[in-house]
Amino acid sequence: MRSGGVMPFSAIVGQEQAKAALLLAVVNPAAGGILLSGDKGSAKSTLVRSLGNLAPELGLRTLPLHITEDRLFGSLDWETALETGKERLHKGLLTEADGCVLYVDEVNLLRSEVIGPLLDAALSGCVRIEREGLSQVSKTSFCVVGTMNPEEGTLPDALLDRFGLMVSISAEKEAPLRAQIVKQVLRWEREPEQVAKTWEAEERHLRDKILQARECVCQVEVSAAMMELAAAW
To answer: Which residues, other chains included, contact 1 with Cβ-Cβ below 8 Å and sequence gap of 6+?
Structure first.
């Protein structure tokens, strides 16, 4: 059986920009979320799922593509209402995802009435529920990591702008690197426990670096030169 069912983050060959972006997401969730855009076969989903094993203390929650608004934002707790006669609101996935990384696969295929409020909640840190005359505001803090295949459609600019960072990735093209990827995937399929054991020390080292980075991220000062560079883009 595979360790966690997902190849270790450190064992994934290539896609260094995407890896750096995802590490930024777990070090500083306030960065505004990450969007990975690339064709099928570029390891988008594998990278994100492996992140769950790399930062288990955060937790990785996956948003179902066809999730209902009640399940996402919250709904009236009918069971309590029937048993006690008292109306109470039941929290949705966005509130349950507090402190987690929220993975949205095929984010470009989500309905507009879902993706817009979802990104608003990630930016504002709160979820407002209004059902059956009841109103409730819940605090939540989660980092959105979205993936999409641009061949299946993109997101409007207004939604793209709500992600802190977007990384365009594609399947690796250099033959030696592609051969290395195939070799690693085949080895993972044949002996996942051995692969997990081989990369165990590197995964542990990376976890330690993430924890250290979280502790000092609030002390980082942005230089004037970096601000000018960011403004120029």
So the answer is: 192, 193
